[in-house]
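Q: I'm building a small set of examples for a reading group on sequence design. Run inverse folding on the following structure and report the sequence directly after it, with nothing in between.
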């Protein structure tokens, strides 16, 4: 199967990066830094965000639409820059699609290195926490580790609404942080790609004794490695970035300028139900 897919892919094809909304931009930033000669097509499903309180059936439907849309654009790889969709099991999304897929790193190795007292926190969406996948991955790498998961349903809507630095964000961060502070964690993983947008507020709440870990860079490194191994890296000419969204393009432009302040970007409002 992989051999057949590889035969059809070429290194000049674009890389798709997908999320429920703007969160995936925090991963796109690292992907672009590591692979500046690639052409990236980002999709933020801003019309249907948040995903973290949806059912598995809904999420599979959305993921399938994104894959089909990007497959029609000739993409060679899709990075699921969304922990919630990654929880569906990337290999179960592949089906008979003719391109490569990769999901978010769970960051278990990063936590193993970061934590001295072996008490770690996980901030993620209710869907992600409900799967127990992060706890399992961390305990497999480090059975001595105690994991304190925290579903943070309020964060994604606050990020999408650009509430940075407001009392609402500070209060929500405080609410979710208190039990983890009481548990005495010394490191915390941000297992939702929206959360780096409010990393400053999270770090301010926990203080310097807690190391906040973002697995975005590791995810980008894994994607690069995969393309390198398969001989699918684009290494000539300048790359490009197209940011697609399903609603609120002006808001997406402002949030992109916040996440990727120095980049030249093209924008497009799209309909994921088209091009099926
Ligand atoms: N950025 C998505 C994630 O990493 C957010 C999901 C949501 O929309 O709730 O899980």
């Amino acid at each position: 199967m992989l051999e057949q897919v590889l035969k059809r892919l070429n290194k000049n094809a674009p890389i798709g990066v997908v999320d429920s909304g703007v969160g995936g931009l925090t991963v796109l930033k690292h992907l672009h830094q590591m692979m500046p000669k690639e052409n990236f097509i980002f999709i933020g499903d801003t019309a249907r965000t948040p995903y973290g309180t949806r059912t598995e059936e809904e999420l599979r439907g959305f993921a399938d639409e994104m894959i089909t849309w990007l497959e029609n654009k000739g993409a060679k790889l899709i990075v699921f820059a969304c922990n919630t969709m990654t929880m569906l099991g990337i290999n179960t999304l592949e089906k008979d699609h003719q391109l490569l897929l990769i999901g978010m790193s769970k960051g278990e190795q990063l936590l193993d290195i970061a934590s001295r007292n072996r008490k770690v926190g996980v901030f993620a969406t209710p869907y992600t926490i409900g799967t127990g996948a992060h706890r399992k991955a961390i305990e497999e790498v480090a059975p001595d580790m105690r994991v304190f998961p925290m579903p943070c349903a309020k964060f994604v809507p606050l990020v999408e609404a650009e509430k940075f630095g407001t009392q609402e964000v500070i209060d929500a961060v405080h609410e979710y942080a208190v039990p983890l502070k009481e548990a005495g964690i010394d490191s915390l993983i941000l297992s939702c790609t929206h959360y780096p947008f409010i990393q400053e507020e999270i770090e301010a709440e926990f203080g310097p004794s807690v190391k906040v870990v973002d697995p975005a860079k590791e995810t980008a490194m894994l994607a690069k490695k995969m393309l390198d191994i398969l001989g699918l890296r684009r290494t000539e000419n300048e790359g490009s970035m197209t940011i697609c969204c399903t609603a609120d393009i002006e808001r997406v432009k402002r949030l992109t300028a916040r996440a990727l302040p120095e980049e030249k970007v093209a924008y497009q409002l799209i309909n994921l139900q088209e091009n099926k």
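The pocket of D-glutamic acid is lined by residues 19-21, 23, 49-52, 82-84, 125, 128, 156, 192-194 (CB under 6 Å).
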